[in-house]
């Protein structure tokens, strides 16, 4: 009987053309109260409105749902099946709502992050272990990318970028210690080709270009000459899109490289690389954790922001 009931409902009109829940609240109210008048009082409508809703539902299903008399209202067999089935669905929905309500303040799901390579090492070493320890049930999906990114369109919860690459209309929090841009070269290269004294000297040197994402041209080198900003794109015969490879090639004497003192930190400390043009480098820069306005109330994003901020030595 239940199978025939729902088959008739499907045959009467395509699902997309009817409201599957139309008449259901009225049906349940009558079933609970065994009375059209009592159902009307419960729902705050007239008995006539209740009667019309029930008749419409019965026409849609193609079968009576109630046995009516002047004194009594009782469910038909089909009506009993429908009431029981709806009761099962209501229990499932109520249980799902209780579960969701219990998760409102608990980080769950997958945290998708897009992190600039410059920040990857410190984040992995400090913030992620802190976050992972506190929230082991949250999966983490990280994409390391220096190029352009649209967090919302690409489904990321948060990103970490330097200031000039931040997307508009985002919440941003400055994180970690500031860093400096540097031009570096190996001792062997400098011994062979000499040390550039001003940015214009780069035209006479081998320079290793760094491509960001799918940009057709390598990144411009930025300098500061007194109060004037300079952007130079030196001639390059070698281009890479990985910051680690950039420093590795410079260490091998392949040319001058423009990078950050963070990425070149070990090589500079161990004298495998030396800085040049120090007096022409721009002011210090910083990393920012940023995320869409709609994400800041998500527990997983809020917890990650807290973990990053707590990692003061990033």
Automatic annotation (TrEMBL):
It comes from the Bacteria. Pfam families: HTH_1, LysR_substrate. Keywords: DNA-binding, Transcription, Transcription regulation. Residues 27-76 form the HTH lysR-type domain. One of its GO terms (molecular function) is DNA binding. The keyword Transcription regulation applies. Belongs to the LysR transcriptional regulatory family. PANTHER family: HTH-TYPE TRANSCRIPTIONAL ACTIVATOR TTDR-RELATED, HTH-TYPE TRANSCRIPTIONAL REGULATOR. This is DNA-binding transcriptional regulator, LysR family.
């Amino acid at each position: 009987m239940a199978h025939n009931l729902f088959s008739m409902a499907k045959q009467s009109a395509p699902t997309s053309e009817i409201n599957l829940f139309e008449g259901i609240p009225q049906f349940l109210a009558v079933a609970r109260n065994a009375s059209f008048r009592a159902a009307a009082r419960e729902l705050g409508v007239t008995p006539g409105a209740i009667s019309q809703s029930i008749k419409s539902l019965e026409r849609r299903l193609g079968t009576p749902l109630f046995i009516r008399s002047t004194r009594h209202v009782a469910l038909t067999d089909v009506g009993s099946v429908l009431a029981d089935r709806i009761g099962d669905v209501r229990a499932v929905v109520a249980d799902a709502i209780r579960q969701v309500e219990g998760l409102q303040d608990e980080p769950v799901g997958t945290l998708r992050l897009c992190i600039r390579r410059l920040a990857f090492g410190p984040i992995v070493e400090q913030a992620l272990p802190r976050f992972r320890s506190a929230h082991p049930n949250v999966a983490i999906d990280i994409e390391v990318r220096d190029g352009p990114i649209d967090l919302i369109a690409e489904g990321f919860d948060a990103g970490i970028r330097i200031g000039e690459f931040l997307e508009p209309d985002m919440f941003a929090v400055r994180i970690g210690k500031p860093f400096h841009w540097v031009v570096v070269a190996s001792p062997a290269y400098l011994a062979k080709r000499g040390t550039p004294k001003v940015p214009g000297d780069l035209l006479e040197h081998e320079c290793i270009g760094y491509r960001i994402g799918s940009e057709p041209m390598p990144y411009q080198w930025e300098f500061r000459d007194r109060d004037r900003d300079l952007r130079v794109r030196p001639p390059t015969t070698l281009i890479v899109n990985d910051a680690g490879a950039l420093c590795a090639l410079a260490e091998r004497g392949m040319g001058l490289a423009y990078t950050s003192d963070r990425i070149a930190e070990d090589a500079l400390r161990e004298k495998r690389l030396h800085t040049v043009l120090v007096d022409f480098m721009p002011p210090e820069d910083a990393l920012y954790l940023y995320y869409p306005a709609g994400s800041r109330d998500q527990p997983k994003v809020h917890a990650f922001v807290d973990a990053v901020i707590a990692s003061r030595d990033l």
